[in-house]
Amino acid sequence: MEKALERQLDETMNNPGVVGVLCADKQGLCLGARGTGERQTCGLITSLAETAQKLHPDESSSPVISIETDNMQILIKSKEGITTAVYKSST
Amino acid sequence: MSMPECRKELKKYFNHLMSLVEGLYAIIITDRDGVPVFKVSTENAPELALRPTFLSTFGMATDQASKLGLSKNKSMISTYSAFQVVHLNKLPLIVTMVASSKTNTGMLLALERDFDNVLKDMRAVVDIS
Amino acid sequence: MQNLERIPDSLGYLVISEDKAVVSSGGELENDEKTAALVYNLVQKAYRIPVMGDKRDGFKKLTINWDSFFYAITVSNNRIYVCKRQYNPQEPMVA
């Protein structure tokens, strides 16, 4: 039943610069992972997305979180109970 | 470092881990019989879940789970209506985390990496070899 | 600390110390301890995310983006610097 998700993750990996994808559910458990995305990070990204949402006065709107280092950018977004993290390499 | 200083440092470290995960009520490290080696808990933790009689059940459960043909059992997550309990098999030690059922389970599992450093030294306390 | 106010489109700023105290603040984030506590929590978690191939220094920049504004967060000298800025989209944020 995860075929559609697996296909979407593979498609995402084909985008230029993408080196990893992670999908987590509401409880922080891993739904799917590709490339540099490690399964143990799923709890962290869900927790990050939940905390970030509290920064907006209207707590129902979910932001896009970007974590940047010298060579990598991680983009995190939560929608309908699923949190996704995309790892993009800038090199 | 003297013994009481050691305990204080450990307690500080574990309390820091507890503050990282909302709804984590207790972290207990025991031997396989449930005898506590180290424990940190808040007053929200259900008393019964901190007792050896409860903690020792994982010792038996992990043995049985390892016989399912999937190789050694590493961890177990038990969910109840108001709580969840995550056990980690680090024999001869067992790590038990008691949290609210709404707590981010993934974060609890991610704490395993933090325990490994501490457990390396604690293992010597219970090792009979 | 008034340098943070001079950031273009700045709506507010916060500087948080390592013991979660607000060192200075201004604009919409003036004395906003609630936001400071949330950002501290956020930074603690973001630092734990392993970023492959980079030194274990953690991230350089953390941004939280909504439709009309965003928070730009960075850590330097054991202090967390937060700036709330207007977002005028020229090109869409690809996520």
Please supply descriptive tags for the structure shown above:
heterotrimer; A: 91 residues; alpha+beta; Beta-Lactamase; five-stranded antiparallel sheet; 2 helices; 5 strands; C: 95 residues; globular
CA radius of gyration of chain A is 13 Å
What percent strand of chain A?
Answer: 35-45%
Poorly predicted regions of chain A = none
Structure summary, number of beta strands of chain A: 5
Describe the structure.
The complex is a heterotrimer of chains A (91), B (129) and C (95). By secondary structure, chain A is an alpha+beta fold. In chain A, 25% of the residues lie in helices and 37% in strands. Chain A contains two helices and five strands, in the order H-E-E-H-E-E-E. Chain A has helices spanning 3-13, 42-53; strands at residues 18-24, 30-35, 64-68, 72-79, 82-89. Chain B is an alpha+beta fold and 129 residues long. Chain B has a five-stranded antiparallel sheet, with helices on both faces. By secondary structure, chain C is α+β, with helices and mostly antiparallel strands. In chain C, 17% of the residues lie in helices and 37% in strands. Chain C is built from one helix and five strands, in the order ββαβββ. Chain A binds chain C through residues 19-20, 36, 38, 41, 44-45, 47-48, 51-52, 54-56, 61, 63-72, 74-77, 86-87, and chain C through 35, 38-39, 41-42, 45-46, 48-54, 57-67, 70-71, 93-95. Strand 3 (64-68) of chain A pairs antiparallel with strand 3 of chain C. Chain C: This is Late endosomal/lysosomal adaptor and MAPK and MTOR activator 4.
